[in-house]
Design goal:
alpha/beta; Rossmann fold; Nucleotidyltransferase, domain 5; 2 domains; eight-stranded mixed sheet; seven-stranded mixed sheet; 17 strands; 22% strand
């Protein structure tokens, strides 16, 4: 066995984490803790030491471009002392001489993970990921070889990262740690005091003190969703077979297609279900809708469903109609007006907390794009995994407006009734 020295000198806390890792691990870390460097080196170690044939390790970021920007240079730097490695720049992958492999992925293309097996996975900045990526895609890939997982990141409100932390923080099967800047000593006190002077208090507590209580910076719907949570409108919302189910879609071609399922009960909107998938045609969704066994009312879609495809000369609206889905086109509305409509709609909504979990995570996360150079928000949403569900909800707010309007009835009352 050849001993190879990797140019990595872990800090005291990093060394402690490496030494005590379990199969399942979750670390809430302040900015500049060194979590990505720590994670990358654990992946390299896994590729080199896993006793099974052809070890496979993965680093997963919210976006593929984030994975490349954050972790790729680290992975190459710490791997280069190992003789015989092969670096694949186009696939963000390094193959090691023992048959091991470490590869980078993004949650914006979770299908790239399907069909693979993994001996270890790092989910970095987990607070910015859709909650179903681990349960539906990553977890099954760890099963046959009993692979391990590390969840790490900085809080972004009370989303899936918060929920996972609350669920496992006392479990003996998990190694869980919360590392606040005021406690680790990694950033000196003067630097922290300087940061406090120029940062919003919520931002400081979130980024440096690992607070889950702070809302996501620039989030569009945090106030309305918090109110819904406080009023217990995010709960169990069963399907009522006596009431029609309306569906509202955001249509993706390369991106995801998102669908909200809603029932109108008086002046309330009961959001009973949510579904999202990528790379599928209308035949797939027609089959899915049929399997749900709901009694459907109106299917709503954005205006681009009427655009004709160059190959067939037919619109997607015509294609869907042949499969039994009769779409009504939602009135075209600017993004800002649609967001205002959504804000006014959420107070009328009751959400099923289980079936709508993925969609709710997206609504919590949907936020303005931030200009790091100018230190101000741009006048447009940040496009990430949450955009599809949020766009579909904007269409819901516009499309279901007619469904919830009550038309007043004029009744003639005899004059004798008036005394």
């Amino acid at each position: 066995m050849t001993r190879i020295k990797i140019p990595y000198q872990p800090r005291v806390l990093q060394r402690k984490i490496h030494k005590n890792l379990k199969r399942w691990n979750l670390f809430v870390c302040h900015r500049r803790f060194g979590k990505t460097v720590m994670a990358v080196n654990e992946l390299i170690k896994g590729a080199a030491t896993t006793p099974l044939l052809n070890p496979r390790l993965a680093y997963l970021a919210p976006l593929y471009k984030q994975a490349k920007a954050i972790a790729w240079d680290y992975l190459k730097h710490y791997s280069r002392p190992i003789p015989g490695i092969k670096i694949n720049e186009s696939e963000l992958r390094i193959d090691y001489p023992n048959g091991g492999r470490v590869q980078l992925f993004g949650c914006d293309n979770p299908d790239a993970l399907r069909g693979q097996y993994f001996d270890g996975v790092v989910l970095d900045e987990y607070a910015q990921m859709p909650g179903n990526v681990f349960s539906e895609v990553v977890r099954p890939a760890l099963s046959d070889r009993k692979g391990w997982a590390i969840f790490t990141g900085t809080p972004k409100g009370k989303n899936s990262f918060y929920q996972l932390h609350e669920a496992v923080k006392d479990s003996p099967d998990w190694l869980v740690g919360v590392y606040k800047a005021s406690e680790t000593g990694i950033i000196d006190k003067k630097e922290l005091n300087d940061a406090k002077l120029i940062m919003d208090e919520d931002d400081y507590l979130q980024e440096y003190e690992c607070s889950f209580e702070s809302a996501i910076k620039g989030a569009y719907y945090s106030k309305q969703l918090q109110q819904a949570q406080d009023e217990n409108r995010i709960t169990s919302v069963p399907y009522d077979p006596a009431v029609q189910v309306h569906t509202v879609w955001d249509l993706g071609i390369g991106d995801a297609t998102a669908i909200w399922f809603a029932q109108i009960v008086g002046q309330e909107i009961h959001i009973i279900d949510y579904y999202e998938a990528s790379g599928e045609g209308f035949a797939y969704y027609a089959k899915y809708l049929k399997e749900k066994n709901y009694v459907y009312g109106t299917h709503y879609a954005p205006h681009d469903i009427e655009a004709r495809e160059l190959g067939s000369g037919k619109s997607r609206k015509e294609t869907a109609l042949k499969l039994g889905i009769r779409f009504v086109t939602v009135a075209r509305l600017g993004v800002d007006d649609g967001i205002d409509a959504a804000r006014n709609t959420i107070p009328k909504c009751w959400f099923d907390k289980e079936k709508c979990k993925q969609g709710l995570d997206a609504l919590w996360n949907y936020h303005k794009e931030y200009d790091e150079k100018r230190k101000e928000f741009k006048l447009k949403p940040f496009h990430d995994w949450s955009s599809h569900a949020a766009d579909a909800f904007r269409y819901l707010a516009v499309g279901l407006k007619k469904e919830t309007q009550v038309t007043p009835m004029n009744i003639e009352i005899p004059a004798s009734w008036m005394g």
